[in-house]
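Z., the sequence and structure:
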Amino acid sequence: MGFFITFEGGEGSGKTTQLEKLAQTLEAEGYAVFKTREPGGTFTGAKIRQILLNGDHQDIQPLTELLLYAADRAQHVQEVLRPALAADKIVLCDRYQDSTDVYQGAARGLDKQWVQTLADLATGGLKPDCTLLLDLPVELGLQRSKNRLAEENSGEDRFEKEALEFHEKVRAGFLKKAQEEPKRFLVIDATQNLDEIHQEILNKIQARLPN
């Protein structure tokens, strides 16, 4: 039934870049790989992403944000993730439920039971086999992210506009989850250069991959 790997971390942690590098390496080794992301891994999700990440939408209420992420995930799980896993593919996903637990739960302070109930509904119990947490200091990550957005002339900067305290809560939330689930999480030092990060990911993940 495939193998489900998620990439998590704060803004500018390099998730997307490292997902691409891992996909290339695994494909070269003969694995069938499927790449996707949240929000936006489906046609419907792409529309939701335009709302959630656009910097003009600073007035979105925390509960609205939570519901939109749950809607994106429900569509993604049914339309994309379960079929890819059923086809015995290694699925690499840029963000998943852990991001919601941390951003909307730990950082926004929404009720944990609300977050858990929506998680159960949206995922149907589908959890990653392995989660790569790319960790780095908040200030460094934000600077990297802002530089990238400027280069791409992207308007997906709603979270970059949040206060530093918010991002510190995000980082702390991810590290807490990694401590709570050490068998699933692999914490990666994202202050290294791209090749060093990629090599650390390979070193840590090889034993977990299906034969």
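The longest strand covers residues 3-9. The helical segments are 15-28, 43-53, 62-86, 97-107, 112-123, 138-152, 164-180, 194-205.

Let me know what you think.
H.
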